[in-house]
Design goal:
Elements (H helix, E strand, L loop, with lengths): L5 H41 L2 H6 L20
């Protein structure tokens, strides 16, 4: 009790196949594959060294206009 044999898995797969039909199961598996592909693409985009290397350290940036003293006219 508590363990699944190959027969349990096969019967469960047969019931799911009969309830949802072959078209529904194949569409679901296609959606899962697209999701995995997009997830991997997102991870690859995050690790792109060009994007990370293009940002400068805060001490290397030009000072903001707000940090500069304002000239008094008058």
């Amino acid at each position: 009790m508590g363990t699944f044999s190959i027969w349990h898995i096969l019967i469960l797969a047969l019931v799911v196949f009969l309830l949802f039909g072959s078209g529904r199961v194949s569409d679901l598996m296609g959606d899962v594959a697209k999701g995995i592909k997009n997830f991997k693409k997102g991870l690859a985009d995050d690790d792109d060294p060009k994007v990370i290397g293009s940002e400068k350290h805060p001490s290397e940036r030009a000072p903001d206009r707000q940090d500069q003293p304002k000239d008094k006219v008058g």
